[in-house]
């Protein structure tokens, strides 16, 4: 077993088999996934010796939170403004159920209840250990890594409801992937979203009102965070409506691209 440092952790399946964990690498010029003996969140990195070409496997959501995905609303001033809202004075939290999590290539299902389904491309933090009341200077010790997320939102339902649980919580409303990057400086990363190849969002994490350390400290002051919990850090300006037949791709610099089709129910 080796310690977790500077690797890309994926969750995958091949030939209809059970989901497994692996690390992404290159062998003889080919991208490969090297299988792990267990869940690296709990067992560390223990290679089995088996590896397969990355092109031959199906990547899944790299983590399924056992507890929760915490969203942060209006964390970019320009996004708050485009929806007619003021920038918040402290992080604005909401929860997405773990049943909303899907992986790369999985469909985003357009519910019949909404006429305004929107994408929100984001950087997501993956928590690595049980923690509560984390001081800002200790936040790096509780972060397992980072992944790409799409905080799919039924905007009309968000406007109609007093809370955001319905608008943010449908099955398939939290695509994440394609893997977890365990060594990443998240202070100034480009975040882009395209729809059918057309650029819609283009921002940088340096423009977040509350940075990653502040968010983790704030959320943990309210609730205990568990291994595998996600914190979605907010979306840049440029959100918009998608419909069945569209394809949404979110890219975070240094991390990768998460692509999902939108389908009818």
Molecular structure report:
The structure is a single chain. With 265 residues, the chain is mainly β. The protein has two domains: 8-60, FAH (SH3 type barrels, Roll); 69-263, Fumarylacetoacetate hydrolase, domain 2 (Alpha-Beta Complex). The chain contains five helices and 19 strands. The strands form three sheets. Strands 1, 2, 3, 4, 5, 6, 7, 8, 11, 12, 14 and 17 form a twelve-stranded mixed beta sheet that branches. Strands 9-19-18-15-16 form a five-stranded mixed beta sheet, with no helix packed on it. It has a two-stranded antiparallel sheet with strand order 10-13. The longest helix is centred in the C-terminal third of the chain and has 11 residues, at 212-222.
Provide the descriptors you would attach to this structure in a database record.
mainly beta; 2 domains; twelve-stranded mixed β-sheet; 5 helices; 12% helix
Our Rg estimate from Cα atoms comes to 18 Å
Q: How far is the first residue's CA from the last residue's CA?
A: 44 Å
* Helix run count: 5
Q: Could you spell the SSE succession in H and E letters?
A: EEEHEEEHEEEEEEEHHEEEHEEE
What is the count of structural domains?
A: 2
Percent in strands: 35-45%
Output mean pLDDT: 96
CATH architecture of the largest domain: Alpha-Beta Complex
CATH topology tier name of the largest domain: Fumarylacetoacetate hydrolase, domain 2
């Amino acid at each position: 077993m080796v310690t977790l440092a500077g690797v890309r952790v994926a969750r995958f399946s091949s030939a209809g088999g059970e989901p497994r964990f692996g690390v992404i690498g290159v062998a003889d010029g080919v991208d490969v996934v090297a299988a792990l003996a267990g869940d690296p969140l709990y067992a560390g990195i223990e290679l089995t010796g088996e590896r397969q070409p990355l092109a031959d496997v199906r990547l899944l959501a790299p983590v399924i939170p056992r507890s929760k995905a915490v969203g942060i609303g209006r964390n970019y001033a320009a996004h708050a403004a485009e929806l007619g809202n003021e920038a918040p004075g402290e992080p604005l939290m909401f929860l997405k159920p773990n049943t909303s999590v899907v992986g790369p290539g999985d469909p985003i299902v357009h519910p019949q209840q909404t006429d305004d389904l929107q994408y929100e491309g984001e950087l997501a933090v993956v928590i690595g250990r049980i923690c509560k009341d984390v001081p800002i200077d200790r936040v790096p010790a509780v972060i397992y890594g980072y992944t790409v997320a799409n905080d799919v939102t039924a905007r009309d339902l968000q406007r109609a409801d007093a809370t955001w649980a319905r608008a943010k919580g449908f099955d398939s409303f939290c695509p994440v992937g394609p893997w977890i990057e365990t060594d990443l400086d998240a202070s100034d990363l480009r975040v882009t979203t395209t729809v059918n190849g057309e650029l819609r969002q283009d921002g940088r994490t340096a423009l977040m009102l509350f940075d990653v350390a502040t968010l983790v400290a704030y959320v943990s002051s309210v609730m205990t965070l568990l291994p595998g919990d996600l914190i979605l850090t907010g979306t840049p300006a440029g959100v918009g409506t998608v419909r069945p037949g569209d394809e949404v791709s979110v890219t975070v610099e240094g991390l990768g691209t998460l692509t999902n089709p939108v389908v009818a129910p």
